[in-house]
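Pipeline run #58 for the internal structure catalog. This entry was flagged by the ingest filter as a single-chain record with no existing model, so it goes straight to prediction. Upstream metadata was stripped on purpose; only the residue string is passed forward. Reviewer on rotation: M.T. Logging verbosity set to normal.
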Amino acid sequence: MSVAAAAVDPLLAALAAVVGPEHVLTDADLRAGYEVDWTRRYHGTARCVVRPVDVTEVARVVAACAAHGAAIVAQGGNTGLVGGSVPRGGEVVLSLRRLTRLDPVDVAAAQVTAGAGVTIEALQRHARDAGLDFAVDWGARGSATVGGAVATNAGGSRVVRFGTMRAQVMGVEAVLADGGVLTDLAGLPKETLGPHLPTLLSGSEGTLAIVTAARLRLVPLYTHTATAVVVLPSLVDAPGLLGRLRGLADLDAVEVILPEAAALTAATFGLALPLPVPPDGAAVLIDCAGHRDPLDELAAAIGSYDGVVASGAQRTHLFELRDHISMAINARGVPLKLDVAVPVNRLDDVVRIARAALDRHASDAQLYAFGHLAEGNLHLNIVGAPAGEAAAALTEDVLSRVIEMGGTISAEHGVGVAKTAWLERVKGPVAAGALRAIKHALDPHDLLNPGVLFA
C-alpha cells in the first residue's frame, strides 16, 4: 500500500498500522485474484485486501473496520461456488490465508487445532503423520481452507461415513463483528453449557463471526481400500444399489457421475471411466476403507450389477477423474451451478426436470451433472446458460420442483449471494426469521459479509 493511499483513506492507515503496509493491498492488479470467485461468475471490487497473520491482528482489523463502518468479506482459499467470499462493491476483503497455525495432533483425544488458513490437504497430511486422518475431503483440498470449510459446512465425498464439516468441529476461535474474540477450543466431547456456538457458526458463511481457528475431530487412518465402478442403465436403479451398499461396514464414499460429465472429463483431461455409460444411465464410484481388506465384501455387494473392481493405479485414476470434473466443466465455460439434494428415489426426476428446463429456456446449453449418491446430492452444472430472465426462469423451474420433492436448493455449496431469495422458501418464514434475529444480534450493523445468506 502506498503512503498516498493511507493519507487519503484513514481506514487504510489504521489497517496498515495493524498488519503492516505490505499486507494492505490497494493496487488493482494485486486485488484482482481476491475479487473473483473460482467459477468466474461472481466478482466485485474491494476497498482493499488486508492479510492478518493471527487472531490478534484479525480482531484489531475487525475493530478498525467497525469503527469506520466498513463492511468485511472474509476469504480463505476462495474456492467457493456461490459468490459468498468475494466483494460485491467496496467491502474490505479480509484474507485468512496467513492464519496457518497447526498444533500437534492430540492422539489421545483424536483431535487437532488448525488455523483458518490451513488447507484441507495440509491438515490431512498432518493428521496422517500422526496415524489418524481428517475425514472431510473434496477435489479442492489443495487450496480450500479450514476456515472456509467451517463457514460453509463443507461436505465432499466421505459424508456417507463421517458427516459434513459441522460434525468434525469440536470447538472454534472466532472474531465477532465488534472485534471481540470468542475462544472455545477445549474440544470436550461432553459439554452441556447451553447452545453450541461452534455448531452455530458452522455453515453461517461468515455472516455471524469470522472463524480464525477450529478444534477438529480426527478419524482412524485406514490402510486397506477397495474401489469399484458400477454402471446403472438409469438413475431409477440407484436406490436399489444404495440399499445393498448400506450394508458394507467399511463404506467410505458413493459418488455418481452422469454420462455428459464423464465424457467431458475424458475429453478434457484424458481421464476416462473403464466402462461406457448409457445416455440415460449413471456411473457410481464406490470406495471402501478399513483396517482389513474390504474387497470381497464390496464385490459381493455389487453382485450382478455391471461393474469392475479397481485397485492400485486404476483406483488412483478413478479418483483423479472425480476430482477433475469441476475443472473440466470450468474449462468448457462459466457454469450456472445448481447444487441440490433430494430423496434418493427422486434423483432421476431431478435430472429429467433439469433437462426439460434446458429445453424450455436454454436449448443450446449443456447439462453436466455429478454428485454424492448416498446423500441424494447432485451438482447440476449448466454451461452456455443465458443470463438475465432466462437464467432466472431456468433456475426457478428446477429449484421450485426440488423444494416440492422435499429437497434442498443448497446441499454443500452454500447460499452465498446466488440463492438468498430461496432461504425463506426452503426454511419457512419462522425459521428464516429466527436466523435473521441471530444475525442482527451478533452483527447489528450488518458489517460481516453483507448480502450473503440473507436477502
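catalog note: The CA atoms of residues 233 and 278 lie 6 Å apart.
catalog note: The chain has a mean pLDDT of 94.
status: ready for reviewer M.T.
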